[in-house]
Design goal:
The complex is a heterodimer.
Chain A lengths: L1 E6 L1 E3 L21 E3 L1 H17 L3 E8 L4 H10 L3 E6 L6 H12 L6 E5 L10 H9 L3 E11 L2 E8 L2 E8 L2 E5 L11 H7 L4 E5 L7 E7 L8 E5 L4 H10 L5
Parallel strand pairs in A: 1-4, 1-6, 4-5, 5-11, 6-10, 7-10
Antiparallel strand pairs in A: 2-3, 7-8, 8-9
Chain B lengths: L1 E5 L2 E2 L2 E2 L1 H15 L4 E7 L3 H6 L8 E6 L1 H4 L3 H14 L4 E5 L2 H14 L3 E5 L1 E5 L2 E8 L4 E7 L4 E5 L13 E6 L7 E7 L12 E5 L9 H11 L2 E4 L1 H5 L20 E5 L5 H7 L4 E6 L6 H4 L2 E4 L2 H16 L1
Parallel strand pairs in B: 1-4, 1-6, 4-5, 5-12, 6-11, 7-11, 14-15, 14-16, 16-17, 17-18
Antiparallel strand pairs in B: 2-3, 8-9, 9-10
Helix pairs in contact in B: 4-5, 6-10
Classes of the chains: A alpha/beta, B alpha/beta.
Chain lengths: 249, 319
């Protein structure tokens, strides 16, 4: 089994954002970078499949600045075999990212490619689908369970009211959701080994964008709220304002 | 100018989020004397279409056929992309529900472009379209110019406006697309009946609920209001609630008209995921909890006293 996992580094979700003076980006000087949380589920699932099958390789593929090697090392520390980084210092739109990933993946011929269901920064939930179309592979996002046997994949995904079961032959591209697994913490020994694992850097060619950024701004402030009161005695007034002021019920 | 709007339906019922996207498309088309084509794919498309002939489309295309009946959404996206090409559409719209995001992304991929995803506004700027979308779960707003042809856009549920117009003409087509992956089964249960991102009212609970069984209080309140139940990350991580209920940057970003936060203190990543809700009610015994900073209305108190009272007061006024 040859498996690729596409990952992105993002600011830690506990960070308060500060905005850069160019008006189109965030100030990254104080940012704590992490592997996008859904991508960690994708990495963990790839490792489990490799372990269950007793052979195969797991490669992480990433588009980003040179400094992303730090997050790639974290993935290698979890047990991933090697990494490929398409270096780009410029921000890319989803189709540019997808083209850069597809350029790498099309030369590899993976049996299975995993993404996180979406990145937690731009939240477009689309790069996996775009790559799938560029490579001509089927794509299923938001997967809650999966199993691979004899070149076939069985997927469960959560939809309204339950789980849909989807089956078919590999190669397939999937987007991992949270309920898929519990990602492992790297062990010290693995972290030491990860330092020697290869990270290949390649040039990034994303082509022309579909979307051009004009501005990135803080959200408009919420109108000042108020405390209605304390305890159950305040409920009558709450119901009144919800009906008469907010008009939401 | 032609705008194609992909319409989502289940059990014969068209999603209100799709009708909002259709309404927004119609409003945009009217300012540029354009045409709006709604497309419904899959078994029951014809029947679902008949319920929305006056919802803003000039034309409705239904695509049914054997190949779509047990296919994954891959096949639907292929049909929509083929229609977009055949009609030389300049824009494609869908609602950013979870299935909608998947269909529109695959469609965009077939057309070699990206999606302007989960937009909260669309406007003309010269001959280009500008969109605004929340990123970092709403910690920032990104303004972008769409430079692809066609422009592919998904709209956040609860942000568009439904319209009523003259009746559309309806044409039927047979599907030709197929997918490698097939839907082979359905497991009842586990996931919520109502998709959180589409709910108009959300009653959300956190650690203050003390134990999983106490979410019954919120279930009952949500039922009364016709809403859905959400949860904070802490209680999802503890296994009290399914992960599909999780609101926040690492869960779902929601924008209902009413969000009731019960026993949730308000971690940054939770606030990010819900602070674009129109009205926020916070009920928490800790007056210093960060949730009160984003709340429209707050009650400081014991939720186990406040919630039952709230339910009985609401019952009295709603019935």
């Amino acid at each position: 089994m040859k498996i690729a996992v596409c990952m992105k580094r993002v600011p830690d979700t506990a960070t308060r954002l500060s905005f850069a003076s160019d008006g189109t980006s965030i100030d990254t000087s104080e940012v704590q970078w992490v592997i996008s949380p859904y991508d960690e589920y994708a990495i963990e699932e790839a490792l489990r499949i490799r372990e269950q099958h007793g052979d195969g390789t797991v490669t992480v593929v990433c588009v980003g600045p040179e400094s992303s090697t730090k997050e790639l090392r974290k993935a290698l520390g979890m047990g991933v075999d090697d990494a490929v980084l398409a270096t780009s210092d410029e921000p890319l739109d989803p189709i540019q990212t997808a083209r850069a990933l597809a350029a790498i993946l099309s030369k590899r011929g993976d049996d299975l490619i995993l993404f996180g269901r979406q990145s937690v920064d731009s939240q477009g939930a689309q790069v996996g689908a775009l790559v799938a179309r560029l490579l001509g592979h089927p794509f299923v996002n938001d997967i809650a369970a999966m199993a691979v046997t004899d070149g076939m994949i069985r997927i469960e995904r959560e939809v309204e009211g339950g789980r849909e079961v989807i089956e078919g032959p590999l190669p397939v591209i999937v987007g991992a959701d949270k309920s898929l697994n519990e990602p492992r913490y790297p062990k010290l020994k693995e972290i030491m080994l990860a330092k020697k694992k290869p990270i290949e850097t390649v040039p990034c060619d994303g082509g022309a964008p579909s979307l051009e950024t004009i501005a990135l701004t803080p959200p408009p402030p919420r109108p000042e709220g108020r405390i209605i009161g304390e305890g159950p005695e305040a409920v009558e007034e709450l119901v009144r304002v919800l009906r008469e002021e907010a008009k939401v019920i | 100018m032609k705008i194609i709007v992909w319409i989502e339906f289940s059990h014969g019922k068209v999603k209100s989020a799709s009708l909002e996207a259709l309404g927004s498309a119609r409003t945009l088309a009217e300012s540029a004397s354009g045409e709006v084509i709604a497309v419904l794919c899959g078994p029951g498309a014809g029947q679902a279409a008949s319920s929305m002939v006056t919802a803003g489309a000039h034309r409705i295309v239904t695509i049914e056929g054997e190949s779509l009946s047990n296919s994954h959404v891959d096949a639907i996206a292929t049909e929509v992309a083929q229609l977009a090409t055949a009609e030389s559409a300049s824009m494609l719209f869908a609602s950013a529900t979870s299935v909608g995001k998947e269909v529109i992304a695959l469609t965009a991929g077939s057309l070699g472009t990206a999606v302007a995803a989960d937009c909260i506004s669309i406007s003309h700027e010269g001959d280009a379209y500008c969109i605004e979308r929340p990123v970092y779960a709403g910690k920032a707003i990104l303004r972008q110019k769409v430079v692809s042809d066609p422009a592919v856009i998904s709209l956040r549920p609860n942000y568009g406006k439904q319209v009523e117009r003259e009746a559309a003409t309806v044409t039927d087509q047979q599907s030709t697309a197929d997918s490698v992956l097939k839907r082979t089964g359905f497991i009842e249960g586990s996931a919520a009946k109502m998709e959180l991102t589409e709910a108009e009212i959300i009653v959300s609970g956190g650690r203050g609920l003390k134990k999983p069984e106490n979410f019954a209080l919120l279930e009952s309140l949500a039922d009364l209001l016709g809403g859905a139940v959400g949860a904070s990350r802490v209680v999802v991580d503890a296994g009290w609630r399914p992960h599909s209920d999780q609101v926040g940057q690492t869960g779902k970003t929601v924008s209902p008209k009413l969000y009731i936060a019960v026993g949730i203190s308000g971690a940054i990543q939770h606030l990010a995921g819900m602070s674009s809700s129109r009205t926020i009610v916070a009920i928490n015994k800790d007056a210093a909890a960060p949730i009160f900073q984003v709340a429209t209305y707050g009650i400081v108190g014991d939720l186990f006293e406040v919630i039952p009272r709230l339910e009985s007061e609401l019952k009295a006024v709603l019935q």
